[in-house]
Amino acid sequence: MSSGVRDGARMAVLSHRFQAIVRRMSNTLARSGRSGVLNTARDFSCCVLTAAGDVLMTGDSPPIHVMGGPDLQARSMLDFYPVPRAGDAFLHNSPYHGNTHAADHSILVPVVDAAGVHRFTVLAKAHQADCGNSVPTTYMASARDVYEEGALIFPVVRVQEDYEDCEDILRMCEMRIRVPDQWRGDYLAVLGSARIGELAVLQLADEVGWETLDAFANNWLDYSEARMEAVIRELPAGEAITTTCHDPFPGVPDGVPLQAKVTVRPEDGMIDVDLRDNPDCVPSGLNLSEASSRTAALIGVFNSIDAGVPHNQGSFRRIQVHLRENCCVGIVRHPHSTSVATTNLANRVGNIVQRAMAEIGDGIGLAEVGSGMSPSEAVVSGVDRRHGAVPYVNQIFTGPNGGAGAPSADGWLTMSDLGSGGTLLLDSVEIDELKQPIVIHRRALAIDTEGAGRHRGAPGLEVEYGPVAGEMEAVYANDGSINPMMGARGGLAGAPSAQLMRNQDGELVELDICGPVLVQAGERLVARTSGGGGYGDPRDRDPEAVAQDVREGWISRERALEVYGVVVAE
Amino acid sequence: MASERATAMRLSVDIGGTFTDLVVERDLELRLFKSPTVPGDPVQGILNVLTMAAEAHAAPLEGFLRGVDTFVHATTRGLNAVLTGNTAKTAFLTTAGHPDVLLLREGGRRQPFDFTVPYPEPYVPRSLTFEVDGRITSTGEVLHPLDLAALERTCDRLLDKQVEAVAVCLLWATVNPEHELAVGEVLRRRLPDVPYTLSHALNPSLREYRRASSTAIDASLKPLMSEYIHSLTSRLREAGLGGRILMVTSMGGVVDVHDASAAPILTINSGPSMAPVAGRAYGTADLGAETVIVADAGGTTYDVTLVRHGEIPTTRTAWIGPEGLGHMTGLPSIDVKSVGAGGGSIAWVDAGGLLHVGPQSAGSVPGPACYGRGGVRATVTDAALVLGYLDPAAFSSGSMTLDPEAALAAVTRDVAGPLGLSAIDAAYAVLELTTEQMVHAIEEITLQQGIDPARAVLVGGGGAAGLNAAAVAGRLGSRRLIVPAVGAALAAAGALMSDLTAVYSATVPALTSAFDIDGVNAALSGLVARCGEFAEHVGATWDDALVTLFAEARYPQQIWELEVPLRVERFASAADVAAFSDDFHATHQQVLGITDAASPVEIVGWGARVRVPLRAAADALTARVTGDAAVSVRQAYVHGVGMTDVPVRPLGTIAPGEMLQGPMLIESPFTTVVVADKSTGTVSDSGSLIIQPRSIHV
């Protein structure tokens, strides 16, 4: 085996081997996890990094998890533990040290060879059902700072040494995290996933040798960079500035205005994303961590181009993301809270980046993906009295936001949001009603809520649910009710989201955009999720596609005529 | 049951896309026949291959068929109808407020950065979806009564729209079926000629999408499959067939043809489900192996199935079409992992200089460049030809010739040039990467099912089995590779080795920390009773039936259940419950690598699998390989050596017990087995080729 030469045949085989390792880690996590957010929604990720901390191989996961954060985390591990040892495992959830937000518990395991040399790092990260916040949600938008947020923060904390648990830390968690058995089960799943990854890398090295793996890592990153460079060289040159505004929220009564400047430089094979001209950190959980700022910008770019380019540190080298310290979409300054850093502002940032790409040239970029954590995706809690009196707290995933219109396809119906990339699974109504004492009365697509376009966005969904008996608390942090998701290149915005309460008399009352809300027996939450924006002028849409949307009840006959200019016969 | 009639013939027919395979079992020997599939009239294709076999047995068709005791049939007709949308015009009746069960599926976009893939259509369009007023809760309580007047109006619309089948799936019908049953009554009265399916009767399982999807697929196939089965049985009877006609199920068993007609979804994945049955039989007969990986390599796909401790693992998440984009069958089905890695897979090099094989395939039309049928791109078959692994003059048992120059030109242009390698090295790289993709498929399914591939025996089948099977076995570190002589028709052979089977389940949740022994025992005895009824239904006695009980269990809050066999038919004491917990912890450790011994175990359902063997243990597995080809030598590639003289051995020339030493090429009917290193081989009593990969016996 010629290890030093870049051999496209050899590299193909080894890239398959590393992909298999990541898949194996993911499979373990998905199947052994306990909480719904982990095993049903699959809100987790796994990756392999080089010893220096470059992201080498990622798997299928919510994009917000893995692009621009694991490298920061792996490097922070080396800051605190310059010589990691075999048997070490580190718990890392600190948004001030490279993690996304406090609710994502990451386990980093250094892969160390027989001579004690640190060769690779494997990382498994999973969103927790609870992380010890001061209120029962992992998305605490109203937190003015990390102290009010209340989450336990682990800035690279060794939780295993010589493959044995450091029980002190686990005991602390069990005293501060709600439903501790569930947390303990999820901790085991995340740790097990990282350990399986470690073992698999060791076995591969036994087979082909560390030198071959090191050479592969270099070659693979160079190859990925070359692919990215080639793609950028084919793009039109240009610069676009796009703006948006997050809806008003606790701590930010006027909302958060944002802008992105995107520059495509085909001659250099580079793309620049500048997020520096944005507000300082805000007294709210909305601030982005450095990881989520970078990742959001990267997602916006990768959503805009050929999906075949590998996503790793090699291709990332071709995108410069300019961030500012103490900026709400930059590098967060402690003790500002980043509790909702993977969703609200992250989605806004990614959306304006991909929309800027669309404005630079037809056939690239994307409209805006529906955003916001609607009551249809709330953390619900209360006491289940169906068999005794058992407290429950869980995030339900009953109604995702609509996807964005794209250059060659309509929006994806169950997209959820930009950060998840639609990867999250959707709850079964029956499973939700079994796990929690709730009834989901309605879940259906909302007619005429799509962002019209040559390729239309996906419509929002309508979800109506309430407790079977007794009271239920729902915590959510929506967006898009005032500032909807914009279309690109002449495409229209999707319909705004909405949250209402149907009271015991059947009347609908508007609710605040941000929970918590107490729902009594006989009352129901009514949510409509955001529609995705359209791509291109709706009058250019294929009339047959418009007619099909009418026949299938996605849009009304009136809308077909008014917005698309298509007469559809009865 | 029919063991005393050893001289009676048993037939099995598998209709594939290209060929209709027939395996004839007579006098404890198997013979294989292939005839082109007749797409417009598949029964004619069956009659053609039967005629071919009758001629080989020097008998008129009628006389030949008169000697047949059992006729087992597998067909992709239902599957193809679903894939091509040629099913009945079907209406979907759903609980009010939930019209989009089939559209939403279970979420989970598989390729998050690819915005060129459109959102998939629902199995039944929204314009044929009707909401039924009435709601039952998770405890079976009626929250809103069924609105019968509205249902009558819905029936008017079904009549207006001239629907041909109706699928009914209401929330929580599995806990309380009264609303579904009432809907069924109204449908029978109002649309007496339109077949319908009720979800709780077909698939009493949790999760409305899966249940609705099974129900919709089943209903949509009823008109078509009833007609097909009627045509099949009447024409076979007319031709002289007197024996029993059975259909292969997705569960790797067989059912009487009339049961298949009543629930056509049961047979939808019948193709790949038979390969592990054959794999199990050969694993046991040739090597006494209990854990087997079965790899069936066709022209376009590579299907992997398993045998674990003698049992064939199943899944409830089988998709028709791509995962997440197609439609879930929702019913237990043999767990199959398919990848697009076949002889027709196209090899190409991307702009960054990385080699890829597939996912595009040249299929059989236009086919590989060497077929000379219009294909120009380099494929796996072309690479194999360049390496000398295939005989250009006698491909597929002499049924076609190949063009080596076209293969060389394609490999040179598409792979060798861009990679800067010689044509030979490039062709080898293509096969090596293909091997890796096959290993991937195997690792994925073995991982899911908790099997260590290195401890399993690999069984290779399918027309393209031989090219990579030995390399795959070496890469996995398998102890042995078996290539059965009937390997090219593994599915059809498996159909002769299968049993009458059924699975019953009971949703009686339980927790080991608060175990309701009486409730669980009542459920278990109910399941055992239903197995007995099944045995009687198929004309057997209680003594013929083999019943296995199992639990679908997990740690509390998990959502993926593991199947754990029960050691007892009823729980007598706390010790039995503790033993069950231990079994669960051990299974969890084995499959997922961790265990939480302090945690109670939650059982979400109990199940019983009943198997009525079609005949006693003296299985006929031995295949007669005829042919008078002689031993020869061909220039072929050996890694580390290059192109060199390699002996070519027709399988028929190898005596059982003779020790073979690689490198060698072994030509068995319809496939060539490539042993490109110093692995050794023998032929078993059943006629199978057994390879001992080099990596294991250095």
UniProtKB/TrEMBL annotation, chain A:
One of its GO terms (cellular component) is cytosol. InterPro entries: Hydantoinase_B (IPR003692), Oxoprolinase-like (IPR045079). One of its GO terms (biological process) is glutathione metabolic process. Pfam families: Hydantoinase_B (PF02538). Residues 8-538 form the Hydantoinase B/oxoprolinase domain. One of its GO terms (molecular function) is 5-oxoprolinase (ATP-hydrolyzing) activity. This is Methylhydantoinase.
UniProtKB/TrEMBL annotation, chain B:
Residues 533-679 form the Acetophenone carboxylase-like C-terminal domain. Residues 10-190 form the Hydantoinase/oxoprolinase N-terminal domain. InterPro entries: ACX-like_C (IPR049517), ATPase_NBD (IPR043129), Hydant_A_N (IPR008040), Hydantoinase_A (IPR002821), Oxoprolinase-like (IPR045079). One of its GO terms (biological process) is glutathione metabolic process. Pfam families: Hydant_A_C, Hydant_A_N, Hydantoinase_A. Residues 211-502 form the Hydantoinase A/oxoprolinase domain. SUPFAM superfamilies: Actin-like ATPase domain (SSF53067). One of its GO terms (molecular function) is 5-oxoprolinase (ATP-hydrolyzing) activity. Signal peptide: none annotated. GO terms for cellular component: cytosol. This is 5-oxoprolinase. It comes from Sinosporangium siamense.
